[in-house]
Write a structure and sequence with these properties.
The complex is a heterodimer of chains A (119) and B (109). Helix content of chain A is 0%, strand content 50%. Chain A is mainly beta and 119 residues long. In chain A, β4 and β5 form a beta hairpin. With 109 residues, chain B is mostly beta strands. In chain B, a hairpin with a 2-residue loop joins β7 and β8. Classes of the chains: A mainly beta (119), B mainly beta (109).
């Protein structure tokens, strides 16, 4: 059974940092590109970042570029999102998403972890 | 800044047919944008219905289909069921990143 479990969310002050993790099981993690997607309360989905299956290539939306870093540990089947210089508008549920084939963005989705940026 | 546009809301009767569309501010949507469609119900994570324009996952009900229509990506539901009431999002590829549409709230009434 495929499972993707995010963790690391919580309350952080503006300007602070947070590191999200996504632990994956039930599929060959090292063969999948991975993404982070977020959803602000009551709003739509927003693409955040991507990383290639071997971790060599990373891509970011303009809204998080230079503040967030996506990385992965294929030995531990884990995806990360290091978030810094956090702003109120970063408040959202953050989902990890697995892409196993060309053009198929979301073969698997996690259940999400909530990040709240507030003083 | 690239914008992907969907109908904000649509209403369909049970058993009816409805088409949701997904437009790009950069021009006509083609297969090279690898259109994906997702369904999200309240309190749940999204799930993927359609990828690469027309392809279904093993869990995608047969009544859902994807296509290109008039320069847009389209999701058609035929024989709508009450459980299809949900938010639907499209996603387009602007290599190497992706952009979501704003979502369509589908009401089955």
């Amino acid at each position: 059974e495929v499972q993707m479990v995010e963790s690391g969310g919580g309350l952080v002050q503006p300007g602070g940092s947070l590191r999200l993790s996504c632990s994956a099981s039930g599929f060959i993690f090292s063969g999948y590109s991975m993404h982070w997607v977020r959803q602000a309360p009551g709003k739509g989905l927003e693409y955040v970042a991507s990383i290639s299956s071997n971790g060599e290539n990373t891509y970011y939306s303009d809204s998080v570029k230079d503040r967030f870093t996506i990385s992965r540990d294929n030995a531990k089947n884990t995806l990360f999102l290091q978030m810094s210089s956090l702003r109120a508008e970063d408040t959202a549920v953050h989902y990890c998403v697995a892409q196993g084939r060309l053009g198929s963005f979301g073969d698997y989705w996690g259940q999400g972890t909530l990040v709240t940026v507030s003083s | 800044q690239t914008v992907v546009t969907q109908e904000p809301s649509l209403t369909v009767s049970p058993g009816g047919t409805v088409t949701l569309t997904c437009a790009s501010s950069t021009g006509a949507v083609t297969s090279g944008y690898y259109p994906n469609w997702f369904q999200q119900k309240p309190g749940q994570a999204p799930r993927t219905l359609i990828y690469s324009t027309t392809n279904k996952h093993s869990w995608t009900p047969a009544r859902f289909s994807g296509s290109l229509l008039g320069g847009k990506a389209a999701l058609t539901l035929s024989g709508v069921q009450p459980e299809d009431e949900a938010e639907y999002y499209c996603l387009l590829y602007y290599g190497p990143t992706w952009v979501f549409g704003g979502g369509t709230k589908l009401t089955v009434l």
